[in-house]
Amino acid sequence: MVGMNNTIVLQVAETRFAITCNHLPFIKWMMEQCGGFISRGKPHLRLDLCLDSIQKGRSTRRSLTVTAVRELYQDGALRFNMESSSYADFFWLMLQICLRCAIGAKQPPDVLIHSSGVVHGGMAYVFTGKSGSGKSTICKLLAPESSFTILHDEVIAISQTDSNFHAWSTPVRGEMPARYHRGAPLKAIFFLKQDQDNYPVRLGRRKTAELLCYSLIPPLVVTHGRLTPEQAPSLKQLLALAELVPCYELHFRPEPSFWECIMKLSEDIYATA
Prior knowledge:
- By secondary structure, the chain is α+β, with helices and mostly antiparallel strands.
- The chain has two domains: 7-105, no CATH class; 111-269, Phosphoenolpyruvate Carboxykinase, domain 3 (Alpha-Beta Complex).
- Helix content is 25%, strand content 31%.
- The protein has helices at residues 24-33, 87-105, 135-142, 205-215, 232-244, 258-263; strands at residues 7-12, 15-21, 45-49, 55-56, 64-66, 71-72, 78-79, 82-84, 111-120, 123-128, 148-152, 155-161, 164-168, 183-194, 199-202, 247-252.
- A five-stranded mixed barrel has the order 9-10-14-13-12, surrounded by four helices. The protein has a three-stranded mixed β-sheet with strand order 1-2-3, with helices on one face.
- The longest helix has 19 residues, at 87-105.
């Protein structure tokens, strides 16, 4: 929903948030890029974005600079410094910052995972791993098949309702960007390892939680042996996710036949709905 006061309401996973911005080109850009995520529901959170400091650079027509150093003020405002070669690059960054703030503020929080995801047979499958492990490759291999819906090839949102988890598309930049707000019950999570053969290895709860901490956006960081209070709710969600959703290390060859390996997994992955 877009109001007369330069406000747009977006929905990602179970989180609805309003962004109010005094820089109208940013609102118009979000309407173009995130139209399928615009919501008419009441937002859980409102974000006020002031972009008064945007200036065009002298070197190229599209360069810009945002002034001030990254710092959190007592009034809750976040001010930071960056340079970009294009407005689009800057706008993508602003959108991701807003999304991360909104996702983390909802209680219990939805979580963002550096991963790709597809829907098949009404269920979602999420694929994560280190950069270059094959997250985007998975989507490219499955996209031509009409029985698959691509959620995203870079960032997936995960939410919890009662004892179930759902995986959702996100309006962030990727090689195959999502155009609509889509989701499905989460069937399984796979940590990718490209190999000569296709086979899964079931992971325990502790190992799964550890790996998810690195895939979380932003990653969980321990300082002086402790998490910050803001990170604790996300850790709780990751532990519940590791407990309730089957997780595997998936060795796979980068060809469509890897999906047969997933279909042949033991029935515990299909016993949950």
